[in-house]
Design goal:
Length: 496
Amino acid sequence: MDTHSVAEPKINFDNSFSRSMEGFYVPCVAARFSAPKLTLFNHTLAKELGLNAADFKSDEGAAIFSGQAIPDGAAPLAQVYAGHQFGHLSPQLGDGRALLLGEITDTDGKRRDIQLKGSGPTPFSRNGDGLAALGPVLREYLMGEAMHALGIPTTRALAAVTTGDQVYRETKLPGAILTRIAASHIRVGTFQYFAARNDQDKVRQLSDYAIERHYPGVQKASNPYLAFFNEVVKAQASLIAQWMNVGFIHGVMNTDNMTISGETIDYGPCAFMDVFNPETCFSSIDTQGRYAFEQQPPIGQWNLTRLAETLLPLIDEDEEKAVEIMTKAVNEYRDLYEDAWLTGAAAKIGLSSPSKEDQVLILQLFSMMVSDATDFTQVFRRLSDVLRGNCVPVQTLFKNQSGLKAWLNQWQSRLETQHRSFTDVADKIDRINPIYIARNHKVEEALDAAVNDGDLTLFDDLLDLVSNPFTERLGMDAYTRPAPESTVPYQTFCGT
Ligand code: AMP
Ligand code: MG
């Protein structure tokens, strides 16, 4: 391949994975693309990474973020992994359309991966073309930024490049490449790949690497591998609780799409729920609703159980004992999740240090929201109006007015026991509950204009709003409302 390397602009790569994890990847380069063009660049993130945005403005940026030019110090590679997909183990997956360029240290001293997604075939592409279409690249860009702005751990987009070439899905579509930043790309499935081959040395090596990179604090524990697992359980319980509290549905919670770092990854057929229905499932390929909204917490535990299985030989020589220890560790997920969820849900209605009674109060509200099919996001946001003396906005969202009235009274009595002014609580509610989420019909409208008309105006507007989701802006009412009824149910297709 005649991919050329460039010395400028300078990116200070320090590639620990490539250096120390031989056997976990295959060195690879990108395919050739006819006319790469830098479409989006994330200036805020670039700053965090210590990159100089001006360096990437020119054609050089397009060349680097499409893999046509390999910056000095990069060591592009495709990582190997396995994964349970919809409950079935695929022992051989891997980066079929992604390249890890390398790692850099951000301005906070944290190590971050820079990965290209959609950069052409790798030895792990199987029957895939290794490519990505512009629509899904833009969706991942937008969703990652929306989640980040909501304070939820996630991979983020640094850039999006159009390739100038077509990709073939159900129809011909413009091709694109996403540059993605992650704490790392180590997945539950990475462990499964080596465990499935009974390669215990590699599972240990991977654990040691993941510990050093993500959870160095456990190195001193009496059983570091158990302590490591406990940390992953904690991180995932917290992550999924945060998804649930913003109405986010990942869509494909296969074990290859679950990180060890606790970041949300692989935004495919994901979406935010409008109308609160716990059974909501947007993905066209998830016909059984395995990854429906309400299934996400138990699926989290199911996936972590698969991770636990890979670690058994590291936990104790006596297999029975190892199973006993890890069963207990897996079962801790439930309480950790419940606690994280309750703390988050209580904060949404202005309560700190929630009690069991508060949980009942919250579940009463949820149950009314489900019965009345209210918009998930608006209800919480409108609670602050109540505390400022205006009940009308929240009332318009419910049918059961007497139930709502009773609940609001009970809620305000509880708030009074906190001895904080209602104005303070109202402000707090507004800082926690977004007014703008990436609503399906708005996402679809923006992607449609970008893909079919090459017009990014709607996308830029939406990205701007969801990047500042708590601040109400004049004239943006259309972005706060659910889809008109004629356009639901919404489906996202996995043609990613
Ligand atoms: P995903 O469902 O997007 O997380 O992908 C599951 C697996 O399929 C991963 O190993 C991907 O690398 C691979 N894959 C997805 N799309 C493609 C594609 N267009 N070409 C090659 N591999 C792909
Ligand atoms: Mg994936």
